[in-house]
Amino acid sequence: MDYFSHSWLPFMYLYGLGGLLFISGIFITIRSGSLNLDSISHWRWFWTLIFGLVWYMSIHASLTLAALGFVNFAFIIMASVILVSSFATYWIINRKVI
Amino acid sequence: METGATTFHSIGTTTDWVVMVIYFLAVMLFGSYFGRYTKTTSDFFFGGRRFSWWLITMSIVATGVGSHSFVKYSAKGFQHGISSTMTYLNDWFFVPFFMFGWLPILVYSRIRSIPEYFEKRFSPSARFLATILLLLYMIGYIGIGFLTLGKAVIPMLPKAFVLFGVTFPITLMGAIIVIAIITGIYITFGGQTAVIFTDLLQGFILLFAGFALFFIGISYLGGFDVFWDLLPIEWKLPLADFNKPPGFNFVGIFWQDAIAGSIGFLFMNQGLIMRFLACKNVNEGRKAAAVNILFILPLSAIVVGNAGWIGKAISISTPSIVSPDTSPDQIFVVVANIVASPGIFGFIMAALTAALMSTVDTLINATAAIFINDVYRPINRFLNSIGKGSPITDRHELVAARWASVAITSLGVLAVLAFKNFPTVYEAHGYFHSTLTPPLVVAIFFGVFWKRFSPAGVITTFVGGVALMIIGARYPAFFIAPFDHGIEMNPSRPYSYIRALYNTFACIGVGMLVTFTSELQDKLIIKLKKRSSSKIEMSVLSAIICLIMFFIIIGTGDLTIDTIFTVLIVVIVPILTVYFVTYNEEEATKGLVASSIKEAKRMFKGSAPNNEIGEKIEVYFEIKNQEDTKIYFSKNDMKRMSASPGDLVYLCDKRKWLGGLKSIHSVYGDPHNDDGKVYIDQGQSETGLFSDGYTLVAEKEM
Prior knowledge:
The complex is a heterodimer.
Chain A: H1 8-32, H2 40-67, H3 71-94
Helix pairs in contact in A: 1-2, 2-3
Chain B: H1 14-35, H2 41-46, H3 53-67, H4 70-80, H5 95-108, H6 114-121, H7 124-153, E1 160-163, E2 166-169, H8 172-190, H9 192-221, H10 224-230, H11 233-236, H12 250-268, H13 270-277, H14 282-317, H15 331-339, H16 344-385, H17 394-419, H18 425-449, H19 455-474, H20 476-479, H21 499-516, H22 518-529, H23 534-554, H24 559-580, H25 585-589, H26 597-605, E3 617-623, H27 635-640, E4 648-653, E5 663-667, E6 677-680, H28 682-687, E7 696-700
Helix pairs in contact in B: 1-9, 1-16, 3-9, 3-13, 3-14, 3-16, 4-14, 5-14, 5-26, 6-7, 7-8, 7-16, 7-17, 7-18, 7-19, 8-16, 8-17, 9-14, 9-16, 12-18, 12-21, 13-16, 14-15, 16-17, 18-19, 18-21, 19-21, 19-24, 22-24, 23-24
């Protein structure tokens, strides 16, 4: 049975359209000056926002792969995201100036 | 109820009821303890803007999980599997707009309710319309909460009970009325501080109870592998099928929940907003939002949906225990009763009902805040202006707030009638969100991020948008079908979810059309105002528009006439607004749009913000009665904090586990020479709930 309309099609729609809205949000807030990347605090928030999108994409991708029987791939994706995010968090928190 | 679905009564034992009663008494005592900290309306509604992010994050769990309840997600988990988590995992897209647009504007402009924003940003008439729409939204939300509570409790109750020889049948509405009385009593005497602390406790308990049920259920089935293998692939996928069935499809739910629902929840749910406003500053609010959405929501998705997944697995392995025909809205209670032992089941049910009560009491508190801020105070101001009012004290307002809570609870019970005939709570909630959120969501969004958006735009978005939504609901095959993405139309409840796309599109379209044609409207009004009879003409036109709106609401029965009427509304309302409303874009947008957040900060402080990064310092307080409300630190301490007289300061009890309960905001006064000491007055000591001998931590706010 073909599960495309139940798996990757909604995934692409969710992160295609949702991602577009998210990027618009980042763009509009930077352009309006309310998200000021010259401030260390805002710079950290910027990376937190990016992490959030990647985090949710990886959750959905992993669950979809696991449901379709690719459990190992799902595990690798989640483990990689958690590992990379942990290193990135350490680096971002310890950075005192931009 | 689902047609032909199996329903249950009298589930549970006496032990379970005893556990539930003890749980409720404990929670109410806990809330009452913190209710004593409610002294002013600010405390009643906002908890005094003092709390740490972690406390707000956990208290949001109970509100969020309650509102997206165990009942409805377990129902969808049972019917469709793990895709019941969809609505919990799609809230991140609008977070940049919230964190760096709406939240700082709300805090820095000292706005206490969403309609107040509409008055400051647009006009009093925009506030009036926003108040009506928001009250409808909040009361509808309370109705959904009560309906869910009723559906959760009914399976545990007998079909009837006998009192003095008379048999009383137990009905859904009867159960809801009793629940409403208990909820109303609690919120009326507690206030926001009590709600925040009760929700904090319940947030932990809910996560614990939900995961306990999951692990007990998995163990009942024989382990995770057995559970996983029992589920068909469709039940394991995290997203629903793209466009079928009409009752649960991805694209409809994306527009209803990820778009309208997420913005509605983050931007216009007064209950949630009041939680964020209870944070000690904007950054703490951002942290609360980020941790909640990134980590707590995925956990909550498992907590609320797992009973449905386990129910599905049991119905496949042993259908004699859980029939596949079980009423979806009862599956949570049924599964909990099967897998948990007596007492544990009572605890899980207590956690569930308490969570729902948390949602409802937050919403009642929030709606009372809107009533006081946007109805009671403006009416009193008006009465005072014509010399018929009396001076209103904080005590008067607190009493009014408590009576408002009672009235709102009653209206919430009445609102249940509008939703009780939907097959599941999920569909009732989806329909509700799709219908009520778009006009306010679009208005807030354009208001915050589009400086050019004017009163004409917002009022026409409200009136014209609602008119378009009404005719869309009346002729779905004509208006909504072009947006349906291939979803089949269910004639009895057409396009429950995807109507959100049409409604949002209609409101955006109206807002943009009016804003882009604003110069034309201005030119027309300049010409009109030159006529001596223009005021009479415009007043007559207003009356005609009201009449047309009335016909749209009741319906003429003809598509063409309804459409022409709607077009007339969209064309004439902006002209009337430009004529009657005085508006200065530069003044009205100062500090109230995303592009002027710096100005908002400046207005909040009253002078240029001091952005220099300083240390947090530890001090002891000493009471000295001052002539002003400033607090006084030593020169050296102020230097360490990089603070100057006039900057804003936050002073808090050092004990972190208090989460900011004992704290105040104030302004730095001129420095003295006693290092490690802060001079405050008696009133500040009482407001901050400071205790003698305990260390305080001071930090510069800006």
